[in-house]
Design a protein that fits this description.
Elements: H1 2-15, H2 28-36, E1 52-53, H3 63-78, E2 84-89, H4 96-116, E3 124-130, H5 141-147, E4 149-153
């Protein structure tokens, strides 16, 4: 079942326009993709939270990232039993060591924001996967943008 969901997700991604482009005319499909945190897999705890995306070579939280973090904060506040691992990811550019460090900075940037906004530290863990777990396997700028993220796993 997971493989089927993944295959459908890949087809949707391949057939849709880039949901992360600067184009202000965002379609409903694009919003559904971003908000769904595809692939959705209840057993793995994927899909409840939004991914937090970053600019190239950055761990700074953009206005869009802050908006998505506010959404995730509301989810965390709605269920105090939820504990999450903040997974830092990078695109394929940069050395392996550099990308692990950048993924860690990204995860910690998100963690620090959540701590400042009332989530207790015992509910948050961080891990960096660098470029080892890409969401998109392509090499276009859009593919790279999808891979520069912090993913919430509960």
């Amino acid at each position: 079942m997971r493989i089927l969901l993944y295959a459908i997700t890949v087809m949707i991604i391949a057939c849709s326009k880039n949901p992360f482009s600067k184009d202000k005319s965002v379609s409903e499909t694009d919003l559904a993709f971003r908000d769904a945190n595809i692939p959705v897999d209840a057993e793995q705890g994927v899909g409840l939270f939004r991914n937090i995306y970053f600019e190239f070579d950055s761990a700074e939280l953009s206005p869009q990232a802050l908006n998505d973090l506010q959404y995730n904060l509301n989810v965390l506040k709605s269920d105090p039993s939820l504990r999450v691992t903040l997974e830092g990811h990078c695109d394929i550019r940069g050395t392996k060591d550099y990308n692990y460090a950048l993924g860690s900075r990204r995860a910690n940037s998100v963690k620090n924001w959540l701590l400042k906004n009332g989530i207790s530290e015992d509910r948050l863990k961080t891990v960096s996967y660098g470029a080892d777990m890409p969401l998109s396997l392509g090499t276009s700028e859009e593919d790279h943008a999808m891979n520069r993220r912090v993913h919430f796993r509960y």
